[in-house]
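Consider the following assembly input.
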Amino acid sequence: MFPTMLTQTQFDSGALAGLASIAHPMRDVGYWRLAAAGRRVAPRRQFDVIVREGGQARYAIELADADRGRLAGLGEGFLAPGGMINLAARGARTGCHAFLYGDRPDEPLWDSRELRQGDGYACMPMRPGSWRIENLLDGAVGRLRVAYPDPRTIAAGQRLATAPVRVTVGMAILPDDLRIDPGQLLVFAIDVRCRLAVTLEQPDDGPPELAAWREERSRMALERVFGNDRC
Amino acid sequence: MSDVSLSVSEAAFETIFSRILPTPLLPFDESASFAGLQFGVAGAIHIAGADGVDFEDGDTFWLDELEIAWDKLVLRLGFDIPTVRVGGFCILRLDDILPWESNDCVWEFPETDLFGADTDIGPLVIDLGPIVSYVVTEVSGRFRISPVSEGGTLKLKVHKQSIDVDPISIQDTFGKLPAILQAAIVAAGAKYVTANPPAFAIDLALGILGFPSLTELLLDILDIGDDLQEWLTRWLNVEIGLPNVLEGLITTAVLKKTMFDIPDPYSLLPPIKMDIADFGGFADPQPPGPTTTLPAPAANIVNPAARFDADMLHIRFDLGL
């Protein structure tokens, strides 16, 4: 079957799922606990985050997995000051989020549903079409065009672009009109409180003449191998 | 010198052997995979006869050109779309934020495989029935005979000593094979498109893999080159190892054959019914009636041997009298 990630039509930084990631910097030395939350997240899925000199530059945490029970329990990671927690939820279907706690277990210091200055969010839209980018907390919007992967350009020797495209989310989303190839990564640098939603508004199924082009292209490919015999 | 010696001419042996040689269907089913292609073959052959028998000195004979008839040849093709890995690269390094720091990666986009290791298309079943008459299978071999006592008879059994199965060749002079395979590829593409309706998803996957069309991806996985018959025979002979498969089938089939059955004990005369008045005398007790039957004189077969010389098979044994 086709991977569902290829047909993902919405990314929400407050409901992490699929081809997306959040980064949160940890500047101060100390001890924190990160708790995963969400409808399909295993209960008590928690991670101790210890920031100290000599720690790692990043601590990658998978918040959810298709196998709900497999990731239950406590994880532990050591970060250097200035290092980042990397969150992902590749197996999540309904999205999940995380809370970061300090001394007080009932008062989260950080909630991934409300990103802050210094945080990062990245997502990889695959579905061609027009997308809307919006900071749900202040209404700033941007436009995104994911190009149709036209096989005629592939036949001409071009390849889909793969370099990440960087976007800044401040009082406005800049640049506010983006064009990418499917599979190109959008990397948002966060300067204000935000919850980012990247939503497909108008799918692009490619130019109508592609069907005839595909048929002719296939016929020629078969002819190169099998000769002129029609099947 | 043995008590009993039977001689069979090469011509008589060949006639008898030709009658017992034909076999029922010998089915097989094998598969192999390489570089994204699963190749399976299900077939059935039978041995129809042989072109000739040459006796050798000793206990072996040479069988020229076993006639192998193909009854079924079906291919199964399964295609794996290559795994596409996205992510697994660094988004942000420490010195992007703090230029005086190291370039350690502080944020990495997680790695994900978009296609797994399972078969994505197929298995596609291709009946090569229309070309089985063009499949050439040349088999010859050296066989050994030996007398074996089994269930009250002395049997002359045939054993394989060596079988030469030439690589299978296909002499498709009418060019049916290209049309059959071409139709199969078109069907595979259509089946995949039906199972995965959004055209964008197929174009996207193909775009990531660098193929303009599904047909070109399938042809790339098939890796046919410029000679279809050579491609098919390579898969059959090298990847599947069909000559070895056929050798095993033929060996097993021939092992079941028995050339001659000689009753053991060996009867020298039939039972004799006689009038007791005509006989010279009986040890006690006397037979009760006017007639009696003398049991058939017989002897166990001992020291059996079977050997060929230039043009004769000699079966010899002693009688355990």
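Chain A touches chain B through 57 residues (CB under 8 Å). Ask yourself how this observation constrains the way the partners meet.
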